[in-house]
Design a protein that fits this description.
Length: 156
Amino acid sequence: GCLESASGDAARRWQPRLLASVSRRAGAAQASGLNLWNVQFGVQDPGVSLPAGVERGAAPQRLELSGEQVSRFQEDGFILIPGAMRQWVEYLREVADYQVENPHSLAINASRSGSYEYIHINCWMTNDGIRDFFYFSPLGHLLAQLGQAEEVRIST
């Protein structure tokens, strides 16, 4: 490792910086209220029921846009679609609450500085609730229509 290949003098200079860094991180985690004993690993299942009428394993929901809506998006670069995700709002709130209360190990590096309350990159890969939103909500269908594509697959 790093300390084994370093000369004795260099290793002694490096070690205090490492300990100070670990101490700062632990202090930031404690100050932000992050319970390090509650950190989760692997894929998380928040146990939140999908919205009414949505079944795990079924085809994603569809929401047809009018030609006028697609044209307006093409002209303006944005569009407001009232109610498009209404049935998913409470679901996403519950999934997000679970995620914050049960942070994944991938969130610690971003959260430990104390500059943000919670950051988790690619949480759709580690949280079944977020994944299910992308798989089963009408978001992909809406984006495909707006992009005038046959389909859209949401991933990173």
